[in-house]
Prior knowledge:
Low-confidence stretches: 385-407
Amino acid sequence: MVDYYKYPCIAFTGGGDGALDAIDGSILKDGDSAYVDVAATGIHAVMILDADNGGAENSPYVVSPDSNAGDKRWVLSYAYADGEMTSFIQTGTGAVTRVSQDKIRECRFSVKDFGAVGNGVANDTAAINLANAAMDITYQQYGQTASNQLSLYFPSGIYLVTPGGLDYIQGNIDAHDAVFKASADSAGHILLINHPGRNGWISIRGIMGSSCDFLMDQNPTRDANTIGMLLNNAHTCNIDIGTIIGCNVGLQLDSYYGDENNATSDNIIRINRLWWNNIGIYQRAGTHADEGRSESNEFWINYMVAHAYHIWLDSSTNSGGKVQDNHYRINTIECNYAANEVGIYTTGHETFNNVFDVIQKVNPSGTGAFILNGDGINNIFNIPYEDIANWATIIQMGNHYNIYRNENIRSNIYAATYPTVGRWQQGDRVWNALPAAGNVPGWICTTSGTPGTWKAMAILAA
Length: 462
């Protein structure tokens, strides 16, 4: 008899001593495990308690407690019969004989073993939650060590999930050839990561809103409510995502709880393409009454296009919260698909000490802004050289805090002439993008203001 499950049993039903259905429902909790060893038939099964199931009894697949059952049901997780533990041996010198079942189970919990289909039509939410619960039970029994890095495995396919329906995933996620798609445009996350310390690595091919047909959809209808991936109080995760497309928010970093773990921090996040979401990345301090923090995360983004806000850092949601010390490395941001697109938006006076390195950008048209600041301070924006012809459009300042500098930092910008709009600080410099003999090399702000007083530098010698 296996003894590491909470309830070892010798029968599924019958109500007698050792029967699974004889366990009083009042003492059972969601996620409890039982091992049923039926000697007479040679059947061995692992059952997981689902506290909200409420289904009709269908032993051994669904078993209801005889007393105080309510909606609590035992659900079959996996089973095998005597004689099914066949041997397996790998090819190659030195390979040893093993039990096939042990080989199949090697620290990976395939969602298809729990009923997921992955065809983009069937809703796989319940099956994924069952696989996740089984992985969590194993973690509770053994812990997670170097030799037992638990992972939830998603074979190639499109997994349809209900927004807000997936539990937070308790271990590594191996979905490098799998896509997650929202079943409807409704409030909630497609994927939720919020348990510190147990998500070492996450690999996902793609995340799609409900209206997307495929990851390369050129102009999908964006969801108005869904969040592609929500990181809540997640720490030290190593995350790789191919594409996030068609969501209201592609990736959101948040902090909900008021305790010593009230931060989403020290994660490394790599995304190849953020494509046609209303907000590409939304990083905020949470809404809990206690201080929430989103800090010390590192982002590597290859390509961002067609978002109302490509990146939005927001500490204004929490009076004691902070969004700080994050580093964004971005290859390309394109802001020219809509008239009011914003490249980088910083709000809240506790949004500070963040660094943005942008290699290439396409400036917004109309009333949009590549950088829009709403009182963030001490942030550093390293953006590429361009001939800035429309200051109000490219670097929108208006009455906002000067986004390029604090009292110790000054702007150095290349353009065809000095600015006539926006707030500038004494000591800012605009270098002539087309210097020539007999012409000025640039202009310097001598009096802070909107746009301040600008004086030409000495004319270059012939």
